[in-house]
Amino acid sequence: MIKVLFFAALREQLGSEQITVPVAKPATIADVIDALLAIHPQWQSAFTQSLLCAVNQNMVSRDHPVNAGDEVAFFPPVTGG
Predict the structure, then answer these.
(1) What tens-digit pLDDT sequence spans the chain (81 residues)?
(2) Is beta strand 65-66 parallel, antiparallel or unpaired with respect to 27-28?
(3) Domain range 2-75, CATH class
(4) Contact partners, residue 37, CB within 8 Å, separation at least 6
(5) Which own/partner pairs from 11-20 qualify as long-range (CB within 8 Å, at least 24 positions apart)?
(6) How far apart are CA 65 and CA 10, in angstroms?
(7) Domain locations in the chain as residue ranges
(8) What is the C-alpha separation between 46 and 7, in angstroms, rounded?
């Protein structure tokens, strides 16, 4: 199982701050997204926007590998001014 966390406006948009999903080995962040959308297809629009992701608190791309027990986080890019 992979623990998935959602932050900032994404958490509000999805109405969830965390979820666990099963992912088969070998897996990537893209596979985690597919697993999330299989459970919650209504989240599709949230994952088509530009999102940052991290595995175990390290910024990664969507092709980064993940393993059982990893913590994956998704959050929108932050802008300031």
Answers:
(1) 999 999 999 999 999 999 999 988 899 999 999 999 999 999 999 999 899 999 999 999 999 999 999 999 999 987 555
(2) antiparallel
(3) alpha beta
(4) 43, 44, 47
(5) 13/46, 14/40, 14/43, 14/46
(6) 22
(7) 2-75
(8) 12
